[in-house]
Every structure is written in structure tokens, then in C-alpha cells.
Amino acid sequence: MAALVARLCRAPGTAAGLRCLLRAGCARPAAALAVPTHGAPGSPLGLGGEAGSGRRSLSFSAAGLVSSAPGPLQPYLRLMRLDKPIGTWLLYLPCTWSIGLAAEPGCFPDWYMLSLFGTGAVLMRGAGCTINDMWDRDYDKKVLRTASRPIAVGDISTFQSFVFLGGQLSLALCVLLCLNYYSIALGAASLSLVITYPLMKRITYWPQLVLGLTFNWGALLGWSAIKGSCDWSVCLPLYFSGVMWTLIYDTIYAHQDKRDDLVIGVKSTALRFNENTKQWLSGFSVAMLAGLSVAGINCDQTFLYYTAVAAIGAHLAHQAVHF
Questions:
Q1: Three-state DSSP string of the chain
Q2: Which parts of the chain are coiled coil (predicted)?
Q3: Which residues 6+ apart lie within 8 Å of 43 measured at CB?
Q4: 240 pLDDT band (50/70/90 cuts)?
Q5: Exposure of 104 in the CB half-sphere (CA atoms within 13 A)
Q6: Tens digit of pLDDT for each residue in 39-68?
Q7: CA 131 – CA 120 distance, rounded (Å)
Q8: Between the N and C ends of the chain, which has fewer C-beta atoms within 10 Å?
Q9: Looking at the predicted structure, is the pLDDT value of residue 25 above 60?
């Protein structure tokens, strides 16, 4: 989003620059790269009602919409985490960064591509969660936070999850086939990461690094979808920044499961860093900001882009200090 605002503001004429600021909004880049808060979810009403009131209210939150879906459909929607859309945003945002950077100066990014990648993010996040829960069904039963997942509680059988996974991947393939040949090959190459990531917590204390490599693939794919191929001087620093960002937010997230992870024998960066987590988060933040700066330099971004990067840096510093 920093790239989007910066490129819009390079349109000729002061009036055009002012209009772009009013339309795009300069506060969004920092919000787009902000680390999500993983607190306990609220209690969406869905098609519930206030106790004793006898009235029914409809919630348009993601969790509310899932809870109001037909009963047989709900386990599948929860399996692909439609009730928890933050993961879809984390997968989608790196795509928007590269699509924004690839836009022509003074132009909005390609709205068709943004929509296409948004659809792909929903499908691939759902497929990734399905694969993860298939691998982890025995582990999930032993962790309070994951014990209610559909496969773990038996709402969906292993065979049904395979069929559902096939459907999601087939639809995702349809989205991928809308891109150029270079991007089709590049997108297909990410499937090995999607399949193997859930196993990494059994092997290494750095599963969050593999998650970063997986979740930020869109930083490469978005550029190639617009330009026809990757400009590695831009795409690699952007991809690196995304990986660092994932290490930040998922290390913070992993701290809530440390006790359970020790009991069942799985690994994480939270266990690896332990009391030194704040220092590691600070290092990842510096690396992320450096990558964003290099990407901006290599695609001729303007002062506004670096102002947004500075705001992101202030936000990350605040999180590291108050971790």
C-alpha cells in the first residue's frame, strides 16, 4: 500500500497529488503492515439474540456469517478458517504490495488483479489450513486452542477433508490459470511449501521461517502477474521483508502455545528465542525496514513511500518495546 500511495502521488500536477492523497489515504500503509493482534476472539452473535429478549440479530462478522450458515456446511467453513479471516489478509497483503509497486506512476493498481489475488488468497489459505489440520489432527486434540477444530473433533473425516482439499486446490488452479505462463509456473512452485510447512514444527525450531517463505510468495507473484516476469532487484527485497514480518507476528503468536508445545514435543521460534525474543523481534524489524527501503529505491519510489516505511518502523518499535 505504501507503493500504491507513492505512485499515485507521482501523477503530474499539485491538484492530482492532492486528489490522490484524499482518495488513497496516507494512514493505510502502516495499518497494512501492522502486526495483527491475536487475542481471544469475541463472541459473534450470528443468528443469535440477546438473552431473554426473544429477538434475533444478524451479525455480519466473519464468525457470525459462518455460524449462520447451514449446519452441515459449517465444519468445512471452519476448516478453511473463514470465521478467522486475519490469516487470509496476511496471505493477501504481500500480493497487494507487489501489485502496487508494479503499477504505473500516477495510476491505481490493477483492480482485476487485486480481485483475482483476493480470491486466490481465500482459497489457498483454506487449502493450507486443511492440509495443516490433516497433518496435525492428533496434535490438535492435545492443545486447548485447537482441540475444537473440525477434523480433531471428528466433524470431518480424513476422506472428506481430502475431497474438500481437492476442491479448493482445483478452484485455486482456475485462478492461477488466469495469469501469464511465467506466473503460472511461479505459483505452482509454491505448492511444495504449502504441503510441507505443517511438518516443520516437528523438525526445526524455525517453522515460522518456512511459514514466511510460504505466506509471502505473493510478493513475487503479484509483480510477475503485472509485468510478465519478476524484477528480482525489487521482488527479492520485498519478499525478504515479508518473511521478516511473518517472523515477527508469528513468533509473538507462538508464545501463547509454548507450554502445550513443550508437552507434545513440537518446536517454534518462541521456544528457540525464549527470553531473548524482544532482541530477535528488533532485529527482524530492522531487516524488514531495510528490505522495504531497498525495494523502494530499486523501483524509484518517492518521499511519501519512505514516510510510510518510517511510520511502519515506529509501529514495529512500539510492539518490540511493549512485547
A1: CHHHHHHHCCCCCHHHHHHHHHHHCCCHHHHHCCCCCCCCCCCCCCCCCCCCCCCCCCCCCHHHHHHCCCHHHHHHHHHCCCCCCHHHHHHHHHHHHHHHHHCCCCCCCCHHHHHHHHHHHHHHHHHHHHHHHHHCHHHHCCCCCCCCCHHHHCCCCHHHHHHHHHHHHHHHHHHHCCCCHHHHHHHHHCHHHHHHHHHHHHHCCCHHHHHHHHHCCHHHHHHHHHHCCCCHHHHHHHHHHHHHHHHHHHHHHHHHHHHHHHHHCCCCHHHHHHHHHHHHHHHHHHHHHHHHHHHHHHCCCCHHHHHHHHHHHHHHHHHHHCC
A2: none
A3: none
A4: very high
A5: 3
A6: 433 333 333 444 444 444 556 788 889 999
A7: 16
A8: C
A9: no
Instruction: Enter the pTM of the model.
Output: 0.80
| d(C-alpha 105, C-alpha 214), whole Å | 29
Which three cell numbers mark 31? 495499518
Cell of 64: 457470525
Dist CA 310 CA 292 (whole Å): 10
For residue 239, give the amino acid letter: Y
CB 254 within 8 A of CB 208: yes
